[in-house]
Batch of 2 targets.
Target 1
Amino acid sequence: MTHIVVDPVTRIEGHLRIEAEVDGGKVANAWSSSTMFRGIEIILQGRDPRDAWAFTQRICGVCTTVHAIASIRAVEDAIGAKPPPNARLLRNLIIAAQCIQDHVIHFYHLHALDWVDIVSALEADPKATSDLAMSISDWGKSSATYFKGIQDRVKSLVERGQLGPFANAYWGHPAYKLPPEANLMAVAHYLEALDWQREFIKMHAILGGKNPHLQSFLVGGMATPVDPNHQASLNIHTIAQFKKLIAGAQEFVSKVYIPDLLAVASFYKDWAGIGAGTGNYMVFGEYPLSDEADPEKFLPSGIIRNRDLSKVEDFDPSKITEAIKHSWYEYDGGDDQTLHPSQGQTKPTYTGPEPPYERLNTDGKYSWLKSPRYDGVPMEVGPLARMLVAYARGHEQVKGLVDAVLGKLEVGPAALFSTLGRVAARGIETKILVDKIGDFTDELAANMGKGELRIHDNSKWEPASWPKDSMGAGFHEAPRGSLSHWVHVKDGKIARYQCVVPSTWNAGPRDEGETPGPYEAALLGTPIANPEQPIEILRTVHSFDPCMACGVHVVDTGGREVTRVKVR
Amino acid sequence: MGKLQSDFRRELAARGVSRREFMGFCSAMAVAFGLPKGATAMIAEAIENNPKPTLVWLNYQDCAGNTESFLRASKPTAAEVILDLISIDYHEVIMAAAGHQAEANLRAVVENQKGKYIAVVEGSIPTGANGAYCTVGGRAAIDIAREVCGNAAATIAAGTCATFGGIPAASPNPTGALGVGDAVPGIKKLINLSACPMNAQNMTATLVYYLTYGDWPALDKLNRPLFAYGKSIHDACERRSHYNSGQFVEQWGDEAHREGQCLYKMGCKGPVTFQNCPNVGWNDNTSWPIACGHGCIGCAEPDFWDKMTPFYAHIPGFPGFGKGSNIDKVGFWATIGVTTAFAGHTLVHLGKKRMQSGKDTPADPNVNPKGGEA
C-alpha cells in the first residue's frame, strides 16, 4: 500500500489536497481536503443585506458572478422584492456568459494538460498537424506555417530552459496517449483560447463594468440602465456588440472547442469507464424564461439516483443537510448531527496537525469543507448532472447533442457516468449555451423597442419596506453546479447567512455515516501507473473543475455584532 | 541588433504580434506613466534587451480574482508578451506541475535565484490557529511567505486582500488575516496594487516600468504606484460635470440614471477612492463600474469592507446639499466628513487587528486611508 499526497492540487481555484492509498496499481482509498478558510459568513453578520452580494461575490474570482446572483436572489426572496423582466434577462446574459467562458478556460487552461503532452508537440510534423486540424474543422488558423510557428515557440522555451508554468510536469508519462500532431494542435488552441476568453468576457465588462467582480448587481434588479436612446445606457449599440461577441463565441466553440474535445476524447475512451463516483446527480435548474413565481427554466431541475435515467425526481430544498463529522467545525448537538442550512450552525475548530505536517489524520476531521447531503446521500453537481437531468427529462437540444457526441465516440449512455463524461458534458453545455444566449439578447432588444425600460423594483429598496424578520433562499446553477444561499434578515440586518456550494457538494469529506463525498468516491479504482506521478488522480479531480475558495464557508449563529462606523 | 533583441523580435513574430502592435503597447505604457513622447522608444529598447526575470505567484486567502484579472491583460496582444517576458515559474492556478513537483519548482527559484526574483502575493495571510487557516503542501502560508518574499528582489501585493487584508480581514477578522506587508514585516521592496481585483493594466505597467528602468515606480505612503493611485476616482470621473451641476440619480433606472448622471446619492465612493479606473477602464477599456451605472465601492482603499459600507449609503450629508449650492465646496466638506469618520474607525480597527494578530505582528502605521489627504 502506497500513500500518495497531492498538495497543492494545481490548475484549480483555491487550495485542495488529495491523499490516497494505492494498492495493486489502483486507488483503494481517497480523502479530499480543503486547506484554506476565511469565514466570509461570519463577516456578513449584522451587515446590510443589500451589500451581501458584493461580499459573497469575493468568495470566488473565477466564477465571479455566481455568489452575487445567489445572494441577490436569496435576499429578494427574504424581503419580497420582484426584479422586472429586464433584470432577469441581464442576469441570464451574465450567467450564460460566465458559464461559456468558464467552461472554455477549464477545458484548455485547467484541464487540457492532463491529456495533452506539450513536450511531445515538439515531435509533430506541422504539415500533418495542419491536415489533422483541417480534417476535423474549418477553423481558419490551421496552416502548416501556423503550426510550425507555435512549435518553434515551444522549442525556444525548451531550449532556453525557461518552461515557466510548464516546467516539471508529468511530460512523457505513459498515460499520455495523443499523437504528437494532436498535441501540437491542442497547444496552439490553448494559446488561442487565452486570447478568446479575454475578448469574449467583454460581455461582462459591458454588463457589469468589469470582470472579474462585476459591479452591477442590485437586490431587486440590476444597476445597468436600459434605454435605446441614451449613450450611458445599454442601448442598440450594446445589442450589436453582444451579437458580435456571441457570434465569435459560437464560432470558437463550434470550430475549436467541440472538435478538440471529440478528437482528444477519442484517444481516451478508457476514461469513459473510470471515475464515476456516487452516481447521484442534483440540479436546481437555471435560466428562468418568465417572470412568474415559479418560472420554467431553460435547463431543468431534478434529482437522479443510482445512474437511473428512467426516473427524475423533483428537487425538494427541505432535503438538504450538512454533516461535519470530518470537518473542522463543531455542532452544539454533537459531531454526528446533521443540519438543514436554514438552521445551519458552525464553529470553526481546527483539530488537525499543526503545520508543517506530512499527513492529515483522516480518521478524524480533515477538511475545511462540510459534507452536504440530499435526503441523506451524496450528490454530484455540475455540467454532467445538468446534462443528465435535461437528457432524462427529454430536453430537445440536450438530447440531440448528447446522442450525437455518444454516436461520434461510439459509446453508449453509460459512458456518461465517468471522468470523460464530465469533460464531454461541459463541452455539450457550452454549445447549448452559445446557441441560447442570443435569445436573451433578442428579448432585451424587443423590450427596449416597446419601451419596457425598468431594471429595478424600487418599492423594496428601503429597509422600512421589508418584513421585520424573514428568511430567504436563493438557488443558482453555477458553472460548477448547484449553489444555494440562505439568509435570515432581521430588523434590516443579516442575522444569519449560509452558502451551500457546488465544490462543497463535490469535494466534501466523508459524512457521519462514513460515506465518501463525490471526489473521494470517483477516485476509487482509478489506475495509477506511477505513484510518484499520479496524473490519473489529477484527471478525475480536474474533471469536476474544483473551486475550493467557493467550497469553504462557515456560519455563526451567535449573532455577533459587527463593530463598524456607520457613515450614514 | 543584440542577440536578445533578435530573439525577442522572433518571438513576437511567432506570436503573430507585429512590430507596430508592440510599439503601440509601449506607447500606451508611456502614457500610463505620464512620460514624454520619446519614452516609447526607450521602453521598447529596454524590454527587448533585458533578460527575462523570474516571477513566482503565491495564492493564499484569495479568490483568484487577481489571477483572472491578470489573464485579461488587454490588447494590444503585446501585453500578453509581458507573460512571456517574465518567466512565471510558480503559479498554482496555471502551472502544469502539481504536488511535490510544483513545490520543487518554487524551491528551485528561492534557492537558485535568491534576491533576484519577483514575488507576487494574492490573498491575505492568516495568523490565527497557528497558520492552519491556510496551508499549502502542509506548510502554513505565513511560513512560505516569509521565506519566499524574504528572499525576493521585490514583492508585489496583488489586490486588496494581499495589500491591506481585504475581505478576510473585514470585521471581525475571524482568521487574523493580514496583508503581506503586515504579515511579513521588513520585505525589501513592497509594491501594493490594491483594488478588488487589481486592474491588470496596473500590474503590466508596473512590470514594464521595472523592465524599462531596472527600478520600481514611485509609490504613495501606502506603497501604491503614483501613476495608478495618484488621483481620486471623483476627480477623473466622466460624470463629474453632473456632480458639479447638481444632477444626481435618485432611483435605479430613473431618467437621470439612464442619462448617466452622478451616482453620489446612490452611495458612490468615488470622492474618497484613489485609483485610475476612469482613465484606463477595465477589460481593454471596455467599461468601468460607474460608466456601467453602479457607484464606486472604494475597493482600492484600506479596510473598504468596513469603511465604505453600507455601500448604498452616500458619504456623509451636509447642510445645503442639492441644486444651487456651491457643489465644489459641498464635495470638499463631504470628503472631510468621511475622512473624519474613517479616522475614528481606523483607531478602533487598528486596536482590533493588534489583538487578533498576536504580539509579534506590528500594526501598520499607514492604515490611515489615502482619503485623508483629499
Note: Chain A has one domain: 2-551.
Target 2
Amino acid sequence: MALKNTDYSVKYRRAESSVLTEQPKVVFGACPHDCPDGCSMLYKVKEGRLLKVNGNPDQPFTRGRLCVKLKDFAQHHYNPDRVLYPLRRSGPKGSGEFVRISWDEALDEIKQRWQKLIEDFGAETILPYGYAGNMGLLNGMNSGDAFFNKLGTTISEKTFCGSSAVTSQLMTIGPALGTDPESFLQSKFILIWGGNTVSTNSHLWPFIASAQKDGAKVVVIDPYRSRTAKLADWHIAPKPGTDGALALALINLIVENDWLDQDYVDQYTQGFDDLKAVAAAFSADKAENITGIKAEEINRLAYEYANTQPSVIRVGIGLERHPNGGQAIRAIDCLPALIGAWRHAGGGLLQMPVFVPVRGEFLSRPDWIKEDTRVVNLSNLADTLTNDELNPAINALFIWNANPVSKLPNANKAVEGLLREDLFTVVSEQFITDTALYADLILPATMAAEHNDIVTSWGHFYITMNQKAIDPPGETVSNFELFQRLAERFGFDDPRFTKTDKEILAEALDWDAPLLQGRSFKMLEENGFIRINVPEKSISRPHAEGNFPTPSGKCEFRSSLDTSSGFVAPVLRQMLAGRQTGRPIDSVPNYILDDQCQDKNECSDKTLPLHLISPKSHAFLNSQYANEAHKLRKQEQQFVLISPADADARQISEGDSVRIFNQLGEVGANARVTTDVSNGTVVATFGYWPGRNLLNGSVNALTKSQIPGFAGTPYYNDTLVEIEKLPKEAIRIRDKKQ
Amino acid sequence: MKGKTLRIAVVGSGPAGMYAIEHLLKEPLNIEIDLYERLPTPWGLVRYGVAPDHPEKKLIIDRAFNYYLAHPKVRFIGNLEIGKDIDHTQLSEWYSAVIYAVGATEDKSINIPGESLPGSWAAREFVAWYNGHPDFSHLEFDLSCERAVVVGNGNVALDVARILTMSPEQLAKTDISQNALEALKRSKIREVVILGRSNLVKAAFHNPELEELACLDGVDIVLDKEQLPKKNNLNSALDWKTKRKILTLNHLAKDNLKEKNRKIIFRFMSSPIELIGSNKLERLVVAKNQIDFDEEGRSIVRPTEESYQLETGILFRAIGYRGIPLPGLPFNKSKGVIENIKGRVSDQGELFPGTYVTGWIKNGPRGIIGTNKLCARDTVRCLLQDAKDGKLSSNTASHDEVLTEVKKRKATIVEYANWLNVERTEIAAGSKIGRPRLKLTKLDDLLEAAGV
Amino acid sequence: MTYVITAPCVADYSCVEVCPVDCISPEPDDSDFQDAEQMYINPEICIDCAACVDACPVLAIYEDVDLPKRWQHYARINRNYFTNKNRTGGVE
C-alpha cells in the first residue's frame, strides 16, 4: 500500500554543481494553471534571474514533480515572444499591426472610451471576458469581479469547463470535498470515468498505480483508448455522450440485483424511489443499444463496482461536454451512496473538491452589483457579439486570462463579431494570441513567478502559496495590479482597490472556518502550502454516516436545490448568487434519447456521420504553450485519430493530411489510423492556435454555439463532422508557409 | 531504541557507503552517522576508479553524495583506518551498528610464470595512479615500449586502453593527475592489445564503453574478423546486449588502418601463459584457446597447443578486483568477501550483532556504481529490522565522546570542513591551468591543504 | 515525444523511483537488474514530465530532441530494450 518513495531522489539533487558555489535563493510557487493537480513549486532564483522551477518534494500530492508543461517553467518566463509593453492597434483588426504606447495612454483611452459608452448605453454595454488562464485568488477567474461589479458591467457567466461537474456535485452531495485523492491508495476498485488521468491529472496516477500494484482493479470509461486507458486493467468505450445511459443502467442493475447497501440508502439518501423509477427504463440491453457496450459487460461492471469495496469513482470533466452530460454526472454521483461506498476509507467519489473557505464576497464584492444587472453566458459569445436583440448591445469587450478565438464554440462566427468596428476590445495577454490580433489595445501581463498569489485546488486538499520570485519584465503587470490601476482611473478608492496584494491575500481565506482550523496565513507563507483540516488519508471517511452538506444532510438522489432556472455556481458569475438565468434542470438524473433531445446537433444529418471529441492536448494546457516550438514538437502537429474502417471508406491512410469539417468551419490534421477509436468516433485534441494550424482552423470552432442547457456547459464533445483527404494544393500551401 | 538516537558507523565513503547513508537518511529516524574513511579524501572509486574521460559519472558526487556528506546528521572522519588506527571491537562499542563498505582493494592474479617481473602491473594500480591516489602516485610506469598488453576485457580493460591511446590534448581537459599526464605525454606506446580468454560473447565490457571507442580521435580499432560472428548470422539464442556488442564490433573493426593512428587490438580466445624478460618484461607468450564441452554439455574454454609471442614492455592485468580481510571479522578467502548472510556479518551461521556489510565487500566486486544502491537498500533493511526487533545495542558513546577519542588516536583526522579546504585548493589550482581540478596526489600535500 | 537514458547511466534507479507511470526498466527487484548496463525509458508510455531528468545523479537523461550527437542512437536503444523484451516475452 505504499507509494514509491521519491523523496530522496527528488530532494537531494543539487541544482548547482558544487558545495562551494552559492546556492540559489528558493521561494515558494504555485502552478497557476487550470489543472486539478495544483502543484506546489520551488522557484530557484539567482541574481534576480529565475533559474529553475521544481516541484515541491514536501507537498504530499506534488511529490517533487511537475509535468510536461511546467518542466521548463523558468525558460517560459523568458520567452522572447512575450508582450512586455502596452500596444495599440495600428492596422485593421486581425492584421497583427500594433505600436507601443504607455500605460497612461492605454488607461486613459480605456477610461475615455468606456465613459462615453456608459453615457450612451449604460455600463452593461461592457462585457468582461476572463477565464482560467490563471487560477490564483488574486489573478485568476475572479480577479476582475470587484472592479466590474463596481462599474456595473454585464455579469459574465463563465461556464466553459467544470460548471456541470460543480452543479451536479452540489445537487447530489453538496459542497463537499469528496474522497481524498491520497486515500485512493486503499481503494480496491478505481473507476476513472470521462478523464485522462495520466495526461490531465497525472499526480493522481501514482496513487492509483500503487493501489493497482496492491490488487486494485482500475477501470477507465472513455470513448477512445487514451493513455490512461492503456495503463488500466479494463477499458470501456461507450459512444460519445451516452455515459448517462450507462450510469442509469448500472443503477438499475444494482437495484434489481440487490447489490445495494439498503441500510446506507435508507439512512443517508433521499429520493431513492424517484431514481429507481428513472433507472428502471434502462435495462442492460437498452443501454447496449444506446452505448454500444455489450450488456454482459455492463452487467459485469455493475457487479464488480458494487461488490469490490472500497470502490471509488474519479469523475472526469470530459463527461459534461454533451447535452446529456450534466445529468450523466448526476447519475454517476448517486452510485457511491447506493452501494455504501462512502463507508470506507478510499471509497466514494472525487469530482470537484473546490469548496474551501475562500472569502468570495470579500474578494469579488457581489454586494456592489446593481440590482437587475444582466447576466450573459459566454458560451455562445459567437452569437452574442452580433445579436441585434441585446439591449444594450455589447460595445466593449475586456478579455484577460482567456483565448476565445482558440476556444469558443463556433469561433469563426465569433471572429466576425470581433471584427466589428464599433466593438472596443481590450486584451490583457502574455503573448499575441489569435484573440489578441483583434484587440484595439493589448496590455502586458505577468507570469506566475512575477507576482504574489494563493491558489486553491480542484483536485486535492491543499492550498498553495505563490511568492513573487523575480521582478516583472518590461511593463508587465499582474491582473491584480491591472484592476487596481483601472479602479484608480475610475475613481474607485475602496480599500479593496488600494490595499497591497499581500494585504488582500492575508484576508482572502476564512481562517476561522472549520476547514482551516489550526492553520494560518503565516503557515502558508512558511511552508508554501497547507492542508485543509480534514482527517488523514488512511482514516478519511467523511460520509461514512452521511453528513452531506446538502439541505437535507443526505445524499440527494432527488435534489432539493432550486434548479428551475438552472444553476451556475456563484464563483462562475462574479459571485452573484441569485437570479439564475438558465434552462430548468430536472431534480432527478435522467437521460434524454436522441430523438427527443432538443439540443442535439442535427444528428439526422447524414452528411456528417462522424462524432468528433476533442480532449486536452498532452503537451499544452488548453491553448497555453501551443505557441512554443518545443512543446509543439512534443505534442506534434494537429492530428486526428480515426478507425481503420472509417479511414478506408475515405481512402485515407496513416499520415495523410486531412480536412475535418462541418458547416461551421474546417481544420487540417494528420490522420492517425488506429483501433484506439471505434467506428464513427474521431478524436482531435484542442488548444492549437488557429493561426498556426493547417487551414488556420481549430477543433472548437466546429462546435455549435447555443445557449447550453445544463449549467451553461458548451457541448464540445457533441460535434458532428466529416473528414476528407486534403487536396494537394492545400498541402503545397502549408509546405510553402513553413 | 525508541526516542534514543541511533548511532551508526559507516566505514568507507565510496558509493557503497554513500548509498548506505542515503537509505539511512530516508528513514524518519533519530539517527547520527559517522562516516569513516581511510584516506583524507572521500568517494572511493568514484574519485580514484572512474576514468578521467567519464566526467559525467562523477556528477554523482556533486548531485548526490555531497549532499549526504554535508547532511547535519552525517559526520565525516577521514584519514583514519578502521582495523589499524581503531579496531572493530572499539567501533562496535561506540555504535549501535557498524556498516562496512570498504570495497575490494586488491586484484586477482593471473598466476603465471614471470608475473612479478617489472612491467607487469595490476590495472588497478595504473588506474589509481592516473587518478592521483596518494598510495599510488609515486609509481613509475615504463611507457617507452611500443606495445602494451591488457589482460581481461571488462570495462577497466577498456579504460586502460583508452587512457593509453588518448591524445594528451584530450587528457589535459580532464582531472587526470598531473604526473600521469606528463608521463603519458612522453609515452611511446602505439598499440594496446586486449586479451580476452573467451570469445566476444563472454566479453565483460558493456555496450556504452565499447561504443565510445568509435569516438576516439586518432585511434583505430583492430580485430580479427574471423573471430566475429557474421552480422546476419546472429544466433537468436544470444541476448540483445550481446547482439548489440557484435554489431558494434563489426562496425568498429576497420579495414583501412591509418599509419599514424594508435591502435587498440582485440584478441579473443587468448590467454597469457608466461611473461619473459631478463630483468624486466620483454615478451609475452599467449596461448590460443578453444571452446570445448564438458561432460554435462556446458561450454568451457581450454588452451590449445598453439601459442605465439608478443613483444611488449608493459602489461596490465584487469581480471577483477579482490577484497581483503579486515581484522576481527570473518573472511571468505575464495570469494574475497566478509562472511555475511544478506548483509549481516556472520561466522558459520552465527551473527555478529550490529555488524553489517554492503557493496563489494559483501557480494564481491561486481556491478556498476548504482548496483551499490540496491545492495545498500537490502543491508539497511536488515539493520532497520534489527533495530526494530531490539537487537541493536543502545549502549553507545556520544557524538562528542567519539570525536575526542578518535582525535586522541590520530590527531590528523580530516573532517568535513578540512575536506572542503582540499576541494577548494584542487579546484582553484585546476582553474589556473584550465582543468576541472588539479588533484593533490601526495598524502602530505593533502593534509596540508586540509589544514590538519 | 519521450526522454532517453544515455551512456553515463550508473543504474542508480533514482529515475525508477520518481517516474509516475513506471515506464523505466529494469526495476531494482527485476531479475535482469544486477547485470544491467543501464536503465531504459519506454517511449510508448513516457509522459515527458522530466521528473527523471532531475532525479538522475549523473544527468544521463535527455529529451529525445536534445540528445547530444554522440548519444543520438540511444533513442533507438531505449526503444529496442522494450520491443526486445516483448518479443522474448520477458527478461533477457
Note: Chain C touches chain A at residues 1, 14-15, 17-18, 20-22, 45, 47-51, 53-57, 63, 65 (CB under 8 Å).
